[in-house]
Every structure is written in C-alpha cells, then in structure tokens.
Amino acid sequence: MGPYKQFLASDIIVTPFTVNKSFSFPYSQFATGSDGQLVGIDRFIGQSGSWDFSNLNNNPTTGTLSTQYQVLVYNSIKQLYYSNFLTSNTGDIVFQPDVIIGSNPSGDVLVGEVNSPIYDNFLQSTLVPNRNWPTGSIGVISVPSKIYGEYIQPYSFIYTFVSSSTTYTITDDGEGNLISGSSNINVGNIIYTHGLAIITNQSLSSGSIATTNVTCSFSSSYTIYETQYKCTIRESEFNATLNPSAQLTGSITFYSSSQFYEPGFGGQLSNNVTGSYFTPYVTTVGLYDEDQNLLAIGKLAQPLPTSATTDTTILVNIDR
C-alpha cells in the first residue's frame, strides 16, 4: 500500500453550468463603479463620410472613455454586422454559384447561381432578421467582456436616457433587436456575444450617446465548470496509519522552544495501532499532479473512519 492513488478516467466528471449576474450602471459609474473597480462602458458615434488621408486631424473623433474615429466606427460596424443588409432589412440577395462535389477536388463543378448572403453578420436569432442600416449616423454602446462574461443575457438589456427633456427606454427583444417605446419601434440591434448595442435610428443615435443622463442595465452570463473527483478507498487500502508519531522508534527534538518528532529508520508501528480493531480516520484529501506536487486540499466536516469490509468513496468538487 502506498500513500498515493491514481485516478481513472471514470473517476473524474466535468459538469458545466451557466451563472448570471445583473448589473445596473448610471453614467457616473460607466468608467469606475461604486466599489472603485474599473467598469469601462464606452459609447461612440459612428458617422458616414469620406476619410481625409491628407490630414488626420480633419477626421472627427468619438468616444466617452477611449478615442476612435467616427468614420472608422461607422465602417467597422457596417462591415461586421450589416454588410448583408444594405438594401433590405431582412437580408440582401446575392447570387453565388452552387458546387457539385466530384470524386476529387479537380472534379468539383460550379453550376448555376443561388441566393445566399456573402458575409457572417453574427445573427443573434434563427428568426428572420431585422436590421436597418442608415446612411447617416449610428450610436454604439460597448460593454467590456470582463463585465458581461460570455454574452449579455437576452431580454436583460435596458438603456434609459434623457434627451431634450424626453426620457427614452431602449430594451432588447431577446432576438437581437433593440426596441423603443410602448409601440415597440425597432431602433437598432444588440450583439449579445460581443457586448455591443447599436442604435441605428437617426432620431436617437446621437442623442443617446451625447447625454450624460443615462443608465445601462443588463445581466451577464458565464459558464463555470465543476470538476468532481471520486476518491474511492478499497477495503484493502489505507487501512494503516502513516502518521510518523505512531512509529515504534523515534525521538523528540527541541528547537527554538518547539518540539518536533523525528521518526526512526525502522518504520515499525507502535503496538497500540497494529491490532485488528484499529481503524484509521480520514480527515483530509489531497490532490496531486504526476510529480507529486500538492494542488488542492479537501477538508472533511468530521473524521471519517475507513472500512475493512466495504469501499469508502469521498467526492471532491472543484469549481473553476
């Protein structure tokens, strides 16, 4: 019997589960929250127009926390999320040839044309999309990934702002669309996995970004992986103590007013721990790597006696 036992593949179970957390930040906390931690919710105005290569200073900038060029924000959002929706809010029709697979790559044949989009615009739903791309300006609210985790929870985004003494509330419909007012007017889109809310409505895009009377609320989503280790002690294993103080030979060493036990070299156990009625108790489980480096320690609520007649199983759960 040795002090270590190797896990089998069947002894380790990894279970993922998603956790959510709600946030609500007023504008005063967009940069730094009430706890002093950096939040980093940034807002941009994207503006269509031409790029002045002769003098970069002639290109207007935007951003409440960081600085970006308005034309580049407009073109980047257009390319990433709206390049298939420039002529129709349900998607452009692009003709592309179909491929008939041959017996080898040289035998592949292009036949006819089919209607198909040519870009991946990160659609957030399997329903018919609804994306309108303006030729003027857009507003972009950018939530950092350290806040929203893996994605913003659908139905949780709420953006409230005041412009010209009028209060506006923008919410998401769970399908990637931004809705304003009781009449459910589509005013933009939200990319849950990227933490971006894009306001394409011309009457709201600039006002929603320029004001400081604003609140942004949402719920984050993050996947935690729980690893369960099944530590099984067979009836013939770990049935004797390895505590050096239980050895028959040894001596007490004094060092700096402290006492330390030095076990003898024989490794013989004392008579009181060698009887048939002696049963060790388990209080701690240690997890080691292949080089016997201690990685984790699990403490039991109370000492657990091992059994000489049946297996004993201890479950260790670790979240990460």
Provide key terms for this protein:
mainly beta, eleven-stranded antiparallel beta sheet, two-stranded antiparallel sheet, 19 strands, 8% helix
Strand and helix layout:
Blueprint: E1 12-26, E2 42-47, E3 61-62, E4 68-69, H1 70-81, E5 95-100, E6 109-115, E7 137-142, H2 145-148, E8 151-152, E9 158-163, E10 166-172, E11 177-180, E12 185-191, E13 196-199, H3 202-210, E14 214-233, E15 250-255, E16 258-263, E17 281-288, E18 294-305, E19 312-319
Antiparallel strand pairs: 1-14, 2-7, 3-4, 5-6, 7-13, 8-14, 9-10, 9-14, 10-11, 11-12, 12-13, 14-19, 15-16, 17-18
Question: Radius of gyration, Cα only, in angstroms?
Answer: 32 Å
> What is the arithmetic mean of pLDDT?
87
Quaternary state of this entry equals single chain
Order of helices and strands: EEEEHEEEHEEEEEEHEEEEEE
**Low-confidence parts, pLDDT < 50 over ≥5 residues?**
none
Largest sheet: 11 strands, antiparallel
Provide the helix percentage.
under 10%
What is the distance, rounded to the nearest whole angstrom, between the alpha carbons of the first and last residues? 32 Å
Q: What number of domains?
A: 2
How many individual helices?
3
In terms of structural class, how would the helical and strand content be classed?
mainly beta
Overall form: elongated
Strand residue percentage: 35-45%
User: How many β strands by DSSP?
Assistant: 19
